[in-house]
């Protein structure tokens, strides 16, 4: 008789453990209505806020950090700007370099046309994610500075809530 031991890579395993822990912590006495699923995500860059909605009902409000150069529309690859416009949540990644990640459908057709006119690459890989799994700075840096390459970053605890309350293919509207 042999015993087969399967080892998971450390990063995904810890993300899964953290996700399950957060899902079960403090859930006693919570009704299904209190953990309702969002059907729309809204980001106001100037406010550094992400909002989750179900219809017109606000489900949650979260502080976010943006790209290193947050003002203005993302125009091209490596401009460190967070895009503006209507996009969709397209896929989830537990093996990201960041604590959980949800891909945003940037670039859309308008973004591609604008970049093509200037002969630029529009860039891509815009995500909503938590803090880095291997931080280079103290947590306070990530909490108080715009630090991403153009992504939308939340604290890890907020990221778990956004992850659980959203699903793929719902719209995300990103405003200046």
Task: Explain what this protein looks like in three dimensions.
With 176 residues, the protein is of the alpha+beta class. The chain has a single domain (43-175), classed as Beta Barrel (L,D-transpeptidase catalytic domain-like), CATH 2.40.440.10. It is built from four helices and eight strands. It has helices at residues 10-24, 109-117, 139-144, 156-165, and strands spanning 40-44, 49-54, 57-63, 85-93, 101-104, 127-129, 152-153, 171-175. An eight-stranded mixed beta sheet has the order 3-2-1-8-4-5-6-7, with helices on one face. It starts with 9 loop residues before the first helix and ends with a strand.
When the domains are counted, the total is: 1
End-to-end CA span: 63 Å
Q: What oligomeric state do these chains adopt?
A: single chain
- The residue-averaged pLDDT reads 86
CATH architecture: Beta Barrel
Task: Provide the descriptors you would attach to this structure in a database record.
L,D-transpeptidase catalytic domain-like, eight-stranded mixed sheet, 4 helices
What is the structure about, briefly put?
By secondary structure, the chain is an alpha+beta fold. It has helices at residues 10-24, 109-117, 139-144, 156-165; strands spanning 40-44, 49-54, 57-63, 85-93, 101-104, 127-129, 152-153, 171-175. It has 4 helices and 8 strands, in the order αβββββαβαβαβ.
Topology:
Blueprint (H helix, E strand, L loop, with lengths): L9 H15 L15 E5 L4 E6 L2 E7 L21 E9 L7 E4 L4 H9 L9 E3 L9 H6 L7 E2 L2 H10 L5 E5 L1
Parallel strand pairs: 1-8, 6-7
Antiparallel strand pairs: 1-2, 2-3, 4-5, 4-8, 5-6
């Amino acid at each position: 008789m042999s015993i087969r031991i399967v080892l998971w890579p450390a990063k995904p395993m810890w993300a899964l453990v953290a996700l399950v822990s957060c899902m079960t912590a403090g859930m006693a006495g919570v009704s299904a209505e209190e953990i309702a699923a969002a059907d729309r995500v809204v980001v106001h860059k100037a406010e550094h806020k992400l909002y989750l909605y179900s219809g017109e009902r606000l489900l949650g409000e979260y502080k976010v950090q943006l790209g290193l150069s947050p003002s203005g529309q993302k125009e091209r690859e490596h401009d460190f700007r967070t895009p503006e416009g209507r996009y969709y949540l397209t896929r989830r990644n537990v093996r990201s370099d960041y604590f959980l990640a949800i891909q945003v459908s940037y670039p859309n057709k308008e973004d591609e046309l604008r970049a093509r006119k200037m002969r630029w690459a529009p860039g891509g890989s815009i995500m909503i994610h938590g803090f880095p799994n291997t931080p280079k700075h103290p947590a306070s840096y990530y909490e108080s500075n715009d630090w991403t390459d153009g992504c939308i970053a939340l604290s890890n605890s907020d990221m778990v809530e956004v992850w659980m309350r959203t699903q793929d293919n719902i719209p995300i509207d990103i405003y200046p």
